[in-house]
Amino acid sequence: MSGLRADLKLLRHGRDWRGRARVPRSAQRWEQPETGEDFPTAWARTAPAGAIRHLLQQAVLKPVVWSQTRPVVHGREYLEGIRGPAIFVANHSSHLDTPLVLGALPPRITKKLAVGAAADYFFDSRSIAAATTLLFNAFPVERRASRRGRSLAAELVDDGWSLLLYPEGSRTVDGWLTAFKLGAAQLCAMKQVPAVPIALRGTFAAMPRGQRWPRPGRPRVTVRIGRSLYVGADETVPEFRARLTRSVATLWAEDDLGWYRALRAAADDALALPTGSRSVLPTTSSGEPAHSHDVAPWRRIWEATRPPTDDAPRRVWTDD
Amino acid sequence: MGRPGFVLDVDERTPPLLMHEGEGFRLERLPLGSQVIYPPESLPGIVDLEHAIRHALLHPHGSDPLPQLLHRGMRLTVVFDDLSLPLPPMRTPDVRQRVIEQVLEMAATAGVDDVELIAANSLHRRMTPAELKRTVGERVFRAFYPDHLRNHDAEDPDGLLHLGTTQHGEDVEINRRAAESDLIVYVNITLTAMSGGSKSVAVGLASYASLRHHHNVHTLRHSRSFNDPRNSAMHHSYDRMADVIGGHVPVFTIETTLNNQPFPAALRFLTRREWEWNLTDQASYLALKRSNDLATPKLRRRIWQATEAPYGVTGVHAGAPSQVHPHTLAAVHRQQLTEVHGQADVAIFGLPYICPYNVNSIMNPILVMSLGLGYFFNLYRSKPIVRQGGVAIFYHPMPHEFHPVHHPSYIDFYELLTETTDPVMLETKYEKQFATDPWYTHLYRTSYAYHGVHPFYMWYWGAHAMQHLDDVIFIGGDRSTTARLGFRAASSLDDALELARDTVGRNPQISYLHAPPLVLADVR
Question: With a cut of 0.90, is the ipTM above it?
Answer without folding.
Answer: no
